[in-house]
């Protein structure tokens, strides 16, 4: 007879090798505790003053904690592609169709699930998973205050509180923040946000967490993107100089709201549900382009004004998990239904050609009269049912698979054109396995087929803002995880990912040009090298290639836009022996050349950036506090970032920043 779930899962997980424990996204609260307690060289942040991305990272593939982010990947870039644009966001493992991301008001941390970190994760996706950990109100009264700024002039303040209302059964979370952002191109913006959440546990087996979060961005000035002529990079762009127009400000309101629920339904069943509403309302938006930029700085100025636009999605998932143990073996079966309903209203833009100018000429003319046109509306509805199995055998390995059937439907209504529809009903699947070769070594592999979104057309495309079609994608990987020491793990993975390739065609439409394949090698080393030193280091070496008729005819280059053949990052956190509570951090990152145009005639040059920071943890009026001071781009390296094929803006120069966190 199987033992009750709580003791069974605890016994099985504690006995598993550490590589498997860190890969288990446990659904049972007891199992989740066992997993977190078993991570050597890591610690969970107890308050805002305790946040430290280097010490809390499981690997080098991407971790965000509070205001800190490290890793090779982030929510916009995993193995050369965007998991958020692909629709692969999760909140506590449950499906979330993200229109606006979770801020630190309700997000405790963000982890990128790819490779071995996706092993045992129900229903993985080819482009990786962005997994948000929710900031649930606890059982103790807390108040965390964070305030800071930087040498560009940005300043902000944040406050987050947790308050028990009814013993351990009901707790309230409330947070607010406000401030200004300053950008390297000389623009600035103001923001404010607020959040509410409840954790209600009417009985020990049931937990319900509703939440609401709203943010506003306003007075957000719009600097130009630079589009050079003749297949060249733009001339050197001066940092911190905004030349107008001052009235072309972006203003928007964003919300995330919903509820999470977990029910321990007996000894072997766990039911989990999430229902989410994510919206972005653009009240005023502009696109500022300097086109045909010459080496001596001459250009054509174009401004595109957008009427109010809306992007909103309701999404969620209901999942039932059955767990059984038989001796050293643990079995989990997941049944899932997930869905989304996304509606968008956009276009109706007005284009202003403002004539010849130079890149350093101010624009001070008054705003024109805006006359907007009819808007485009689209609606995407998708339902997916799935079955997944995850089996783990202590000291042997694990095996997992999932099978899903999805029903995808899209309706597009453009002014003056008949209604356009699209539908797809593919079968999706995943197979993964891991084998414990020795107590310190495991090998793993997986193959995944998915249906993912391909994002929207960029603002400088003829079909700007248009929702691109859903695409079928595949990914396979094979790797190993080796325990170098008690607190250090090495992960090496080879991978291959295939999906359709979208970019600018000859008519400047953003459309499918062929297919793209990215093969590569990932390396990650993370953990505690000693009692005072933590490391998170990683590298990606890849060979992205585009294929298709355009490549064969020479109209499209073989290297996909926006992708680099290599990326390397090193993060060190050293607690000094001289001053208790003082630690020093070093970050160094290197990126290879990034293909910048569809014809491959232009690439952003390779660059290496370094950052230094110090963190001092102390008591302020008897309360835990942390002061962090950092200098990014230490050597003031000049560089450009890509804003779409052939469009550029300048990166941050040397920037000093500081913030103080206090927990009450």
Task: Kindly estimate the percentage of residues that lie in beta strands according to DSSP.
Answer: over 45%
Shape: globular
Gyration radius over CA = 25 Å
The pLDDT mean sits at: 90
Supply the number of helical segments: 5
Which class of secondary structure composition applies to the elements? mainly beta
Q: What is the fold's blueprint, element by element?
A:
Layout: H1 5-15, H2 18-21, H3 29-37, H4 53-56, E1 63-65, E2 68-70, E3 89-91, E4 94-96, E5 107-113, E6 129-134, E7 142-150, E8 155-166, E9 170-182, E10 188-203, E11 206-221, E12 225-228, E13 249-265, E14 269-293, E15 298-306, E16 309-326, E17 329-346, E18 350-358, E19 376-393, E20 397-413, E21 420-424, E22 427-438, E23 441-452, E24 471-485, E25 488-504, E26 510-528, E27 533-547, H5 549-553, E28 566-575, E29 582-591, E30 594-595, E31 603-604, E32 607-620, E33 623-632, E34 640-642, E35 648-650, E36 655-663
Parallel strand pairs: 3-6, 12-14
Antiparallel strand pairs: 1-2, 1-5, 3-4, 5-6, 7-8, 7-36, 8-9, 9-10, 10-11, 11-13, 13-14, 14-15, 14-16, 15-18, 16-17, 17-19, 19-20, 20-21, 20-22, 22-23, 23-24, 24-25, 25-26, 26-27, 27-28, 28-29, 29-32, 30-31, 32-33, 33-36, 34-35
Tags for this entry?
664 residues, mainly beta, 22-stranded antiparallel barrel, 6-stranded mixed sheet, 5 helices, 58% strand, globular
């Amino acid at each position: 007879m199987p033992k009750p779930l709580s003791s069974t899962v605890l016994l099985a997980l504690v006995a598993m090798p550490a590589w498997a424990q860190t890969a288990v996204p446990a659904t049972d609260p007891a199992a989740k505790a066992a997993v977190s307690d078993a991570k050597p060289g890591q610690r969970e942040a107890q308050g805002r003053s305790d946040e430290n991305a280097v010490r809390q990272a499981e690997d080098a593939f991407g971790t965000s904690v509070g205001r800190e982010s490290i890793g090779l990947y982030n929510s916009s870039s995993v193995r050369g592609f965007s998991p958020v644009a692909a629709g692969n966001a999760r909140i506590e493992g449950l499906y979330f169709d993200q229109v606006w991301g979770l801020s630190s008001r309700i997000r405790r941390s963000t982890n990128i699930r790819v490779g071995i970190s996706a092993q045992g994760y129900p229903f993985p996706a080819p482009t990786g998973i962005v997994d948000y950990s929710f900031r649930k109100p606890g059982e103790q009264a807390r108040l965390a205050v964070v305030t800071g700024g930087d040498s560009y002039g940005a300043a902000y303040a944040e406050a987050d509180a947790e308050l028990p209302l009814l013993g351990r059964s009901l707790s309230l979370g409330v947070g607010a923040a406000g401030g200004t952002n300053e950008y390297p191109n000389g623009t600035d913006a103001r923001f404010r946000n607020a959040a509410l959440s409840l954790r209600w546990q009417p009985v020990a087996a049931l937990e319900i967490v509703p939440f609401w979060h709203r943010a506003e961005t306003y007075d957000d000035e719009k600097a130009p993107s630079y589009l050079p002529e003749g297949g060249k990079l733009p001339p050197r762009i001066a940092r911190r100089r905004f030349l107008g127009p001052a009235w072309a400000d972006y203003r928007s309101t964003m919300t995330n709201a919903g509820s999470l629920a977990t029910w321990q339904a007996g000894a072997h069943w766990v039911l989990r549900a999430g229902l989410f509403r994510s919206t972005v309302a653009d009240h005023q938006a502009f696109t500022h382009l300097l086109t045909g930029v010459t080496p001596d700085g001459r250009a054509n100025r174009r401004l595109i004004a957008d009427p109010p636009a809306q992007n909103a999605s309701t999404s969620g998932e209901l999942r039932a998990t059955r767990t059984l143990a038989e001796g050293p073996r643990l079995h989990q079966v997941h049944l899932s239904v997930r869905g989304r309903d996304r509606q968008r209203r956009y276009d109706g833009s007005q284009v202003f050609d403002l004539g010849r100018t130079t890149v350093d000429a101010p624009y001070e003319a008054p705003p024109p009269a805006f006359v907007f046109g009819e808007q485009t509306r689209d609606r995407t509805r998708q339902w997916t049912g799935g079955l997944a199995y995850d089996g783990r055998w202590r000291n042997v390995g694990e095996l997992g698979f999932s099978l899903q059937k999805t029903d995808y439907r899209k309706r597009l209504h453009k002014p003056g054109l008949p209604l356009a529809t699209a539908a797809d009903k593919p079968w999706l699947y995943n197979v993964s396995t891991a084998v414990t070769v020795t107590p310190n070594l495991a090998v793993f592999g997986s193959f995944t087929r998915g249906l993912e979104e391909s994002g929207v057309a960029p603002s400088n495309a003829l079909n700007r803002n248009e929702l691109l079609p859903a695409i079928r994608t595949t990914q396979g990987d094979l790797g190993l995880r080796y325990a170098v020491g008690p607190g250090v793990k090495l992960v090496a993975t080879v991978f291959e990912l295939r999906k359709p390739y979208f970019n600018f065609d000859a008519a400047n439409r953003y459309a499918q040009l062929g297919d793209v394949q990215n093969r590569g090698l990932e390396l990650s080393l993370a953990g505690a090298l000693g009692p005072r030193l933590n490391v998170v280091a990683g590298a990606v070496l890849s060979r992205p290639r585009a294929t298709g008729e355009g490549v064969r005819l020479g109209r499209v280059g073989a290297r996909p836009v926006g992708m680099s053949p290599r990326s390397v990052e090193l993060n060190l956190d050293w607690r000094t022996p001289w001053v208790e509570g003082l630690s020093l951090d070093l970050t160094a990152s290197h990126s290879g050349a990034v293909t910048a145009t569809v014809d491959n005639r232009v690439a952003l040059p390779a660059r290496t950036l370094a950052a230094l920071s110090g963190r001092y943890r102390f008591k302020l009026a008897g309360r835990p506090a942390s002061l962090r001071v950092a200098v990014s781009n230490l050597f003031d390296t000049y560089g450009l970032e890509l804003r779409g094929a052939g469009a550029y803006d300048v990166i941050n120069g040397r920037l000093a920043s500081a913030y103080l966190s206090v927990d009450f």
